[in-house]
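Q: Could you fold this chain for me?
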Amino acid sequence: MQPIVDDLSMEIGYRYHSPAIRAEAGTGTSLHEDPRRSKAMPRTRAPHVVLQRTGTPISTLDLFSKNFTVLAGPDGGGWCGAARAAAADLGLVVDAYRLDQEGDLSDPEGRFADAYGVSSSGAVMVRPDGFVGWRAKDASTASKATMIAVLSSLLCRNAPVRPGAATSG
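A: Sure. Below is the predicted structure, expressed as structure tokens.
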């Protein structure tokens, strides 16, 4: 018998259990999470945060489309470069954004890091369906190899696809 869950958690806060998510250790197996407290934990929907794109307000949710999306804090540029390089090796397109006050996309209210549970050098990988597939709280492991492992895992691939290699599916 499952415990009664409030409507908000039931409709927006369900947790996606799948091998196409890189869950964090110790996050449990509950089926729901209060979306106001999930902090972009892998398996949950990516939170809404108002950003600025060239001076115009935009929601983080508007950045998620047909591609995997990396959102990195202002000191997380290494994640963006690593994600692009890994995606190129895997034959994918990844949208990567660093929330830099001097770039095209910024976080003028400084809400991203708290809402996404990362430091200023952290990053998240959001799947095209808007669910967080992976999160790094800082840039200590930022590398192309890490991003190849992340993307391969989210795609349920055992090994990286090399250019010219035959794939099934």
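A (continued): The chain is about 20% helix and 15% strand.
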